[in-house]
Structure formats: structure tokens, C-alpha cells
Amino acid sequence: MSDAKMETVIDDQAQSGGPQSQAARQVEELRADVDTIDAAIVAMMAERFRVTHRIGLLKAQAGFASADMHRESAQIAALRDKADDYGLDPDLAEAYLHLVADAAKRDHERLASQANSR
Ligand SMILES: O=C(O)C(=O)C[C@]1(C(=O)O)C=C[C@@H](O)C=C1
Predict the structure, then answer these.
(1) How far is the CA of 27 from the centre of ligand 1 (A)?
(2) Start and end of every Chorismate mutase domain (predicted)?
(3) Are 20 and 13 in contact (CB under 8 A)?
(4) Is 14's C-beta closer than 6 angstroms to any atom of ligand 1?
(5) CB of 71 closer than 6 A to ligand 1?
(6) Distance between CA atoms of 102 and 40, rounded to whole angstroms?
(7) Could you tell me if the ipTM is greater than 0.85?
(8) Furthest-apart CA pair in the chain: how many Å?
(9) What is the block-wise mean pLDDT of the chain (118 residues), using blocks of 10 residues?
(10) Ligand 1 pocket: which of 53, 55, 73, 96 to mutate (most atoms <8 Å of CB)?
């Protein structure tokens, strides 16, 4: 256990028939759950992006700035609390919010520059 490995290809281990193949097969089963969860997260992110795109269209039409850091502070505080409730590292929830809000703002900037060039 003490040798520091850089990578273990679990698929190879599962087929090896060696002493670690049962653990490797259990990892593979859990990976199916990970894939299902990741697909759901991507679907929800796409839905979120469609909603923020609509916000961006309204902001561009009204001449509002893409960013609203007051709103983002409230979102971060709420998500950090929620993460705590679920036993998730609040830093991870905050990193998620930055990721999606930054993407939304880039989209809003594009929409604003399109509106300005008309
Ligand atoms: O709620 C807004 O005003 C948005 O533009 C959406 C959003 C977000 O992605 O949640 C993005 C940018 C703002 O700074 C705040 C929030």
C-alpha cells in the first residue's frame, strides 16, 4: 500500500482475475452511478443556461450590465448553507456557482455586444 501509484486503470484490474479484481468490479458498479449523476448534472446545467440566456436577452434589451454581484453574493451564501446541510464541502458549491455564473456572464456579454452592433 505504501508505493505511490500515479494511476490504476480499473478496467484492466477487473479483468485480471487477481486478488484485487473484486474491488475493481465494485468500483465499476459505482461508476455506473457516477455516470448517471453526471448526465443529470449536465442536463440541469443546460436547463440553467437556457434560463440565464433568457435573463441575458432581457438585460441586453434593457441596457443592464451582465453582472450583479449583489445577487451572486446571495446565491453563494445560500448554496454554501445548502452544501452544509447535505454534508458537502461549501467551497465546492461556491466553485460550482462561479463556474456557471461566469459562463452566464460571458453569454450575456456576447448578447449585449450583438444588441449594440444592431
Ligand atoms: O440573475 C442574474 O441577474 C443573472 O444574470 C444570472 C446570474 C447566474 O448565473 O445566476 C449570472 C450573472 C449575475 O452576476 C448573477 C446571476
Answers:
(1) 38
(2) 21-112
(3) yes
(4) no
(5) yes
(6) 21
(7) yes
(8) 67
(9) 77 82 92 98 98 98 96 98 98 98 98 88
(10) 55
